[in-house]
Specification:
heterodimer; A: eight-stranded mixed sheet; four-stranded antiparallel sheet; B: alpha/beta; globular
């Protein structure tokens, strides 16, 4: 069976004045049915752009996006519409991504109307069902976003993503704006919904602990490229790329006895370097080969892949 | 005598009390983490210590003693000798804290010359030393850069250089790394910790991240809806948190070193949200508390100190046993 989502050698370029930024620079991966793929990386690495390109919210420059075996990369808006229903997005900021002048009923109903789904009664039934599933009170439909707390607003965002019964949801930092006590509620909700509705997630986050908990497989992104991918169990037991190791070493544990090992890496993400491995200027183990030759993503067995000459 | 003693501090905004009877102390050279969720009053507490509250806020009661002297009684002019000299503040977003039209060198020398009689030349030399101290490479050249020339992590280093320029006794760091990436976060917190030791400062570290607390603080004070509900040394706290809110917070957090996965374990939640604290006459946490009894709703439980630990819950000891 084909993967739910298959992405091949995807590129997304932005023009910034006369400069061209390769935000996504040759990325390939799959999301299987029922799978949660975590995408981690630091700000500016291209993870959000990748998510939006996959959903065709941002145009790709090269490469191929297949949903359920159908190439959706170049479909025009009309032909894309039925596929759009199958892939939705949950945004980071539950304040900025909901129109403050629309009731929850309008926010959810518009999507159903646009896609011509059901009559008024059927639409109401579906909206009530979704509102209940995400844990909002039944009277939520006729209220406005500002009447809800941050965590509840994120539930509205989730309801909006679910209303069209998608197969794939791109979750872009869905809990980063929420307080710790609310994060757990929303993560548990996402787990329940995935199980009950048979969803697949592409889960984008800078927070390693969240990704470790929720992902079945993890992609680590650095400056537009996937530098390592593995199942969650393998990645945490045996990270191979120096950047992945540095990310893990930098994440603070809540065990005061477990002091961080190894020095945190130096420097910060900088614009892409002309030659060699993108990570070489910060890498503690870089050699002349790293400065000259860009490593390919190599198979290390067990579905574990890393883009490092020495992995 | 502690370096800083905050005694029963209450701060009110029109229609809302942000800080309620908060008491804590900071000893010279130690790092106290003040932890809580957004809106719990931790930043308002920090601004009170700096005497930088917005005009519509009012200190209702309490004392803030620095070296035993109540700084709430100081005039605004006298307060200016304290800020930057005895207590400094760094904030979350270094881009909005730095002046975009002045070079970083000018902004650092301004602080030095405000507090010390120094020539421009000498102040500039000190600024270069400071940039070097906070790990900005090629400081002699970078001193004439403007904030927009620098990355987020570098800007935060400049803020730190300004904050420690006059060797303050207390550095207040309000979510200093929340806007930074995780690799940069570790660098910046390591830097603050290194400076604390080298310059003998105390640090009041305000954060919502328990991982940051465990790795970089000596003691923790947990705040909920304006009140401090628990205080303890970090070893004690993380081994055995007592207040139901502290326990809930630690339980709800996914730890990066814990082998927890959704397929095998469910995260424990704190039900409801902090909104429920409004209008509560008793303990603010009562509407969300798993061990609540009717007496909790009569009056807010006082913060009771016992040895190294302080706790605002009469039922917690027993429930945690």
């Amino acid at each position: 069976m084909t993967a739910l989502l298959s992405v091949r050698d995807l590129h997304t370029r932005y023009a910034m004045g006369r400069q061209v930024v390769n935000a996504v620079d040759g990325v390939s991966f799959e999301v299987e049915r029922g799978e949660t793929v975590g995408l981690v990386g630091e700000s500016g690495c291209g993870k959000s752009t990748l998510g939006k390109t996959v959903l065709r919210l941002v145009p790709s420059s090269e490469g191929r996006i297949e949903l359920d075996g159908t190439d959706v990369t170049r479909l025009d808006d009309r032909s894309l519409a039925p596929h759009r229903r199958r892939m939705q997005m949950i945004f980071q900021d539950p304040f900025g991504s909901l129109n403050p002048r629309q009731t929850v009923r309008t926010l959810l109903g518009t999507a159903l109307k646009v896609h011509g789904l059901g009559d008024a009664r059927e639409r109401t039934r579906q909206m009530q069902d979704i509102v209940g599933r995400v844990g909002l009170p039944p009277d939520a439909l006729d209220r406005y976003p500002h009447e809800f707390s941050g965590g509840q607003r994120q539930r509205i965002g989730i309801a909006r993503a679910l209303i069209l019964r998608p197969a794939l949801i791109v979750c872009d930092e869905p809990v980063s704006a929420l307080d710790v006590s609310i994060q757990a509620q929303v993560l548990n909700l996402l787990v329940d919904l995935k199980r009950d509705l048979g969803l697949s997630y592409l889960f984008i986050s800078h927070d390693l602990s969240v990704v470790r908990y929720i992902a079945d497989r993890v992609l680590v992104m650095y400056l537009g490229r996937i530098v390592e991918s593995a199942s969650h169990a393998v990645l945490w037991r045996d990270p191979r790329h120096p950047y992945t190791k540095a990310l893990f070493a930098s994440a603070p544990s809540t065990d005061p006895g477990h002091k961080r090992t190894g020095a945190a890496i130096k420097g910060e993400v900088s614009a892409s370097l002309a030659t060699g491995c993108r990570f070489h200027s910060r890498c503690p183990a870089a050699t002349d080969r790293c400065r000259a030759e860009e490593p390919e993503l190599r198979d290390l067995g067990n579905g574990h892949r890393a883009a490092c000459h020495y992995a | 005598m502690s370096l800083l003693e905050v005694e029963r501090l209450s701060v009110a905004f029109p229609g809302h009390t942000a800080v309620r009877e908060a008491s804590f102390t900071i000893d010279a050279g130690e790092t106290l983490a003040l932890v809580g969720e957004s809106g719990c009053g931790k930043s308002v507490t920090a601004f009170s210590v700096m005497r930088l509250l917005p005009p519509n806020a009012r200190v209702v009661s309490g004392r803030i003693l620095l070296h035993g002297e109540d700084i709430l009684g100081r005039s605004e002019a006298a307060m200016r000798d304290v800020r930057g000299k005895q207590i400094s503040l760094i904030q979350q977003e270094p881009m909005t804290s730095l002046n975009p039209v002045l070079s970083i060198g000018l902004q650092i020398t301004e602080v030095i010359r405000r507090h010390e009689r120094t020539s421009r030349v000498a102040a500039r030399a000190r600024a270069i030393e400071l940039l070097d101290l906070v790990g900005i490479p090629d400081a002699a050249r970078r001193i004439d850069d403007y904030p927009h020339n620098l990355s987020g992590g570098m800007r935060q280093r400049v803020m730190i250089a300004m904050a420690v320029a006059c060797r303050p006794k207390l550095l207040i760091a309000d979510e200093p790394t929340t806007a930074l990436d995780v690799t940069t976060q570790a660098q910046v917190l390591d830097l603050i910790d290194d400076l604390r030791r080298r310059l003998g400062m105390a640090v009041l570290l305000i954060t919502h991240d328990l991982g940051v607390v465990a790795q970089w603080a000596d003691r923790i004070a947990v705040m909920y809806a304006g009140r401090i509900v628990e205080q303890a040394p970090i070893g004690t706290f993380f081994a055995r948190p007592l207040h139901p809110y502290s326990r809930g917070l630690l339980g709800a957090r996914v730890d990066v070193d814990a082998d927890e996965h959704y397929s095998t374990s469910r995260l424990s939640e704190i039900p409801g949200s902090v909104v429920s604290a409004a209008g509560e006459n008793g303990c603010s946490f009562a509407p969300r508390c798993p061990i609540v009894v009717s007496s909790c709703r009569a009056a807010p439980p006082p913060l009771v100190t016992e040895g190294e630990r302080a706790l605002a819950c009469p039922r917690a000891q027993e429930a945690a046993a």
